[in-house]
Amino acid sequence: MSRLATRLLLGALAGLTGTAAMTACMARLHQALPVQERYPLPPREITGALAHEARGERRDELGDWAVAAHFGFGAVAGALLSALRFPARPLPMAAAGVGVWAASYFGWVPALGILTPAHRHPARRNALMSAVHLVWGAVAALTLSELHHARRTMFAPGPLQDRPA
What is the mean pLDDT of residues 128-156? Predict the structure, then answer.
């Protein structure tokens, strides 16, 4: 693999891991929202909007697509940050996570008419979304750092000693 391909692969894996941690936090924080704000979070809203889901219409299969899109986006974001050689340290990556949130929910998502800009969403939901993007970045950074270390050590070339004779 080329060095770029390696960075893309490891970044995507780190992005997936960050997304798993982020999703766990989202689920718990969503339950802490006031009842009137516990409607689906933006990843599900985006999927519904892109699928032209009618308001109030229930389409269970879109939940699967929302999970896939959410994890796919996290993997792509991790791969791109890694390809750009963004520092694999928790603080810079946490900031990058919030940057991804801001660029998405104040930028391209409303620009494409998918959702309203984040400043029009309830403040507690924005706090939830920005906090979980901090989690995404920090966990992705720690994972990426560990993957680079593993690649240099336990996955490095060397003699194969446990193969049958």
Answer: 97
Is 163 contained in some domain?
no
In a domain, 100, yes or no: yes
Q: Report the distance separating Cα 101 and Cα 94, nearest Å.
A: 11
Q: Is residue 161 part of a domain?
A: no
Domain count, the chain: 1
Assign 3-class secondary structure to 91-157.
HHHHHHHHHHHHHHHHHHHHHCCCCCCHHHCCHHHHHHHHHHHHHHHHHHHHHHHHHHHHHHCCCCC
Closest by alpha carbon to 137, among 35, 17, 46? 17
Q: Which domain holds residue 136?
A: 3-152
Per the confidence metrics, is the pTM higher than 0.90? yes
Q: Is residue 164 part of a domain?
A: no
Q: What is the pLDDT of residues 74-98, one digit of tens each?
A: 999 999 999 999 999 999 999 999 9
Cα(46)–Cα(25) distance, rounded to whole angstroms?
19
Half-sphere exposure of 21 (CA within 13 A, CB side): 20
Position 44 pLDDT exceeds 90: yes
